[in-house]
Amino acid sequence: MGRRASSGLNTTAIIGIAAAVLVVVVGGSFVLKKGKKEGFTGQPLPVEETFTNATAMRRNEYTVEGKVFRIESRDSGVGVCLMVGSEEGEQEAVFIKVPEEIATINLERDVTYAFKIQVGEGGVNVATAIKKP
Fold first, then answer.
1. pTM surpassing 0.70?
2. Which among 62, 73, 86, 105 could bridge 47 via Cys, Cβ 3.0 to 4.6 Å?
């Protein structure tokens, strides 16, 4: 009498399934890493200089990250006050005007955000992009 073929999984099928699971896990980790939002790259806002010489900083772009402690509605968008760490290690309040077309995410108090800003006329900080790091 002849032998019958085994009906169980063979080694090739087990290795193929393990490889597929590994690809899914590695792909998922890349997607999750990519989904994490980080702050912007660029020159950080010199906080002390904004108080002493803001008009000289006009038309320059900076990045700033801080915790929102006040939100004010404006005709042309939203005004946001951030608590930002200065060079001396102290917390300073920085005001940023956020135009309506930039305020695409819901800004909340006591939440940290990263802003890319351009210093406008009169030394007013105007947001050009926002991220939640």
1. no
2. 86
